[in-house]
């Protein structure tokens, strides 16, 4: 009996065993032409199993156990790409779109993300897997970027970013390669004036469910990027599964997410990917539950439809749209009223949508063309009332403002490869922008056109040296009084030298231009002239970066970069506030006559060490020391508003596998950022007027305390035969540290008040994929 016991035990456990397996597959294409690469070698680890791409460039690994994998893709005459951090879960296939670039050398390639490299210096890929794994990202790629060197969060409530000492307004959002309006819910989140910003918000409207690998660039920018001086967040969409239907459902304190993807039919490779999200706070709002008197709601819908065309091309139709609102009502108990906001009724509404299409087509073995058309619009409004203490009725209209900002963007780009050593990229961008403030009936809509042709030539000087020379031109015209046509040439250049298989040095230069924030043009001065600043020209920036990178193996690297930025033609105050500069603006109205006679300077050094997730552990440590100053109308140099002097971030995590296909993960993130600056407040004058008045002729001499925030994320992933689940707890600011946000004069307290940022924010989520 004892001899057959092991056999019976094996039989019993086998009858209950689950067949847990899934598939990693994808397509390997030429990065320049988009043509499929037939016969490329794809290896997977662990297991070291090999695969060869078929006639359509596809590869497939089936019957794989759930877990972490890495892919290495090689092809004769092309650079080898290593893709780490692939998470395979039961119930969901992992589909990878790989682009290989030609190479005249067999040296180790620096590309490790699987995404096509778009710049030599200051570029960071953001993968969907990072947004799911990093602590307190709220599945937002902009919040992932706070782990990168030189990047600081402007406020806990929003994803606005200060990059290398530049204002968040200098960051450009792109979708599928073209410029769009601010793609965020609650675009007023975290601001001093409670007015909408042009580049940030509380939550990204585009769900992570639709994102492929995005790129974050800090400059200098290659020739295909224009109308930007600070940073670019270029979001790319992934296509849905073209072989099987898959579903994802997630419930969290952020909201309810439902996504579906799959083929339109079994006879076609056309696919769809759709996601809908409704905020959890909105559900509570329906039930009458509020947070600090605020009723916060948002919902959004995103989609990406993919249709293959003849000869390896594809046509996609994409779209995103969201509505959000934040309503604040005073407490009925007037004894709880401590600050001036407590006696106000504030209604804020935000609507945003974007839609368009892309068309990509290989033209030959040497050429391809890509065209994108997208339209986007943002509508934000804010109304504030003073509430009567006795009746709780609205007794006085305090403010009423709204804006509508729309863009139509077009781009077409031709890639042509003469041979392995010579490659040409040529194209143009067309952007039409309309900005209006209906609450000011005397102001006509502000319209502008921007035409941006560009050309870039890549030349492999030697087997280990590659250079790129480019020319971008920005031709802009504002349809407003006193506006002129601006024609601004912008040369770009970069070089990368591979010293040995593990070490490279690089350098980049670029001259860049950016139109002013629309609110500067539409400033009404002395209530008589709606476009007093319409003659402003774009701000320009010369930027230089030199870099060093050392690869210790396929998953470890050290990067050091030093940068210098000289901004000129900066709008500065030429009237009563001659120390004013546009480099310090976030959202507040200007109310000042400006001239393009200012300059600014940012320089610093950045260091980052990254270990991708291998052997169940990952780490990204980054830091920077920098200096950010500006010169006013009188020629005086001052520290800028965002001159925090340093940034530091630690992002790390460890995974543990237990029984029954269960994986636990512990992830931490710590941010230490030098405090930003503010102008001193004139307490006496503010008390007389009842609102915040800064000292006359003051600059940003008040430095807030350093910002420190530790975050924690703990998750449990469990695989079943046909589905997988993820239970996670995110704790933003797990220590509950009270970081300073800004200072203002409070009419109720009759004193200067320091407003703190958010404390501990717990977000519990449960995700099912099947």
From TrEMBL:
Keywords attached to this entry: Cell outer membrane, Membrane, Receptor, Signal
Main location group: membrane
Subcellular location per the Swiss-Prot or TrEMBL entry: Cell outer membrane
GO CC, alphabetical: cell outer membrane
Presence of keyword Membrane: yes
The keyword Calcium is annotated on this UniProt entry: no
Short name of one Pfam family: CarboxypepD_reg
Signal peptide positions (record): 1-17
Coiled coil start-end: none
Protein name per the record: TonB-dependent receptor
Organism: Dyadobacter luticola
């Amino acid at each position: 009996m004892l001899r057959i016991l092991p056999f019976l035990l094996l039989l019993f456990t086998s009858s209950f065993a689950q067949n847990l397996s899934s598939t990693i597959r994808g397509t390997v294409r030429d990065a320049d032409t988009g043509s499929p690469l037939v016969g490329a070698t794809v290896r997977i680890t662990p297991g070291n199993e090999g695969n060869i791409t078929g006639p359509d460039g596809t590869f497939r690994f089936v019957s794989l156990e759930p877990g972490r994998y890495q892919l290495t893709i090689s092809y004769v005459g092309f650079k080898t790409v290593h893709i780490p951090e692939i998470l395979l879960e039961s119930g969901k296939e992992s589909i990878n779109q790989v682009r290989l670039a030609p190479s005249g050398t067999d040296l180790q390639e620096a590309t490790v993300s699987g995404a096509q490299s778009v710049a030599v210096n200051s570029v960071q890929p953001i993968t969907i897997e990072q947004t799911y794994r990093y602590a307190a990202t709220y599945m937002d790629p902009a919040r992932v970027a706070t782990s990168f060197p030189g990047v600081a969060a402007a406020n806990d409530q929003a994803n606005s970013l200060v990059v290398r000492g530049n204002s968040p307004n200098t960051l450009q959002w792109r979708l599928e390669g073209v410029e769009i309006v601010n793609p965020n819910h609650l675009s007023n989140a975290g601001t001093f004036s409670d007015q909408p910003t042009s580049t940030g918000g509380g939550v990204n409207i585009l769900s992570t469910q639709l994102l492929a690998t995005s790129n974050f660039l800090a400059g200098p920018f290659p020739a295909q990027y224009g109308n930007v001086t600070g940073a670019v967040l270029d979001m790319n969409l992934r296509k849905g599964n073209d072989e099987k239907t898959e579903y994802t459902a997630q419930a969290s304190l952020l909201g309810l997410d439902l996504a579906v993807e799959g083929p339109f039919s079994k006879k076609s490779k056309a696919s769809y990917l759709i996601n809908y999200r409704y905020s959890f706070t909105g559900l509570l709002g329906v039930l009458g539950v509020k947070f600090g008197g605020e009723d916060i709601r948002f919902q959004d819908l995103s989609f990406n439809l993919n249709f293959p065309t003849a000869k390896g091309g594809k046509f996609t139709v994409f779209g995103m749209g969201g509505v959000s609102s934040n309503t604040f009502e005073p407490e009925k108990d007037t004894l709880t009223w401590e600050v001036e906001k407590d006696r106000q009724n504030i209604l804020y509404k935000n609507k945003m949508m974007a839609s368009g299409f892309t068309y990509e087509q290989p033209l030959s073995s040497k050429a391809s063309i890509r065209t994108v058309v997208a339209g986007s619009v943002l509508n934000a409004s804010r109304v504030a009332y003073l509430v009567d203490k006795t009746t709780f009725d609205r007794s006085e209209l305090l403010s009423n403002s709204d804006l509508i900002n729309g863009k139509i963007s077009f781009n077409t780009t031709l890639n042509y490869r003469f041979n392995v050593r010579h490659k040409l990229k040529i194209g143009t961008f067309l952007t039409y922008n309309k900005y209006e403030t209906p609450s000011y009936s005397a102001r006509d809509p502000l319209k502008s056109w921007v035409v941006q042709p560009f050309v870039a030539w890549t030349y492999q000087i030697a087997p280990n040296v590659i250079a790129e020379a480019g020319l971008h031109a920005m031709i802009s015209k504002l349809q407003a009084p006193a506006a002129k046509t601006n024609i601004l040439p912008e040369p770009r250049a970069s070089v990368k030298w591979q010293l040995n298989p593990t070490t490279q040095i690089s350098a980049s230069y670029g001259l860049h231009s950016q139109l002013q924030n629309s609110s500067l043009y539409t400033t009404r001065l002395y209530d008589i002239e709606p476009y007093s600043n319409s003659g402003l020209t774009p701000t320009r920036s010369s930027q230089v970066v030199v870099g060093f990178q050392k690869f210790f193996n396929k998953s470890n690297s050290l990067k050091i970069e030093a940068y210098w930025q000289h901004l000129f033609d900066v709008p500065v105050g030429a009237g009563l506030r001659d120390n004013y500069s546009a480099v310090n603006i976030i959202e507040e109205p200007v109310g000042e006559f400006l001239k393009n006679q200012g300059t600014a300077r940012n320089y610093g050094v950045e260091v980052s060490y990254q270990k991708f997730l291998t052997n169940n552990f990952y780490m990204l440590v980054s830091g920077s020391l920098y200096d950010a100053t500006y010169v006013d109308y009188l020629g005086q140099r001052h520290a800028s508003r965002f001159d925090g002097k340093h940034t530091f971030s630690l992002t790390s995590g460890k995974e543990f596998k237990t029984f029954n296909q269960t994986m636990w993960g512990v992830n931490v993130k710590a941010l230490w950022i030098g405090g930003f600056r503010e102008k001193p407040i004139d307490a006496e004058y503010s008390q007389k007027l009842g609102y915040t008045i800064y000292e006359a002729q003051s600059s940003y001499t008040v430095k807030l305390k350093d910002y420190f925030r530790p975050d924690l994320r703990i998750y449990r992933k469990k695989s079943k035969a046909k589905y997988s689940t993820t239970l996670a707890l995110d704790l933003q600011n797990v220590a509950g540290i009270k970081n300073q946000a800004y200072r203002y004069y409070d009419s109720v307290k009759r004193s200067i008040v320091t407003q703190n940022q958010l404390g501990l924010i717990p977000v519990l989520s449960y995700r099912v994929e099947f």
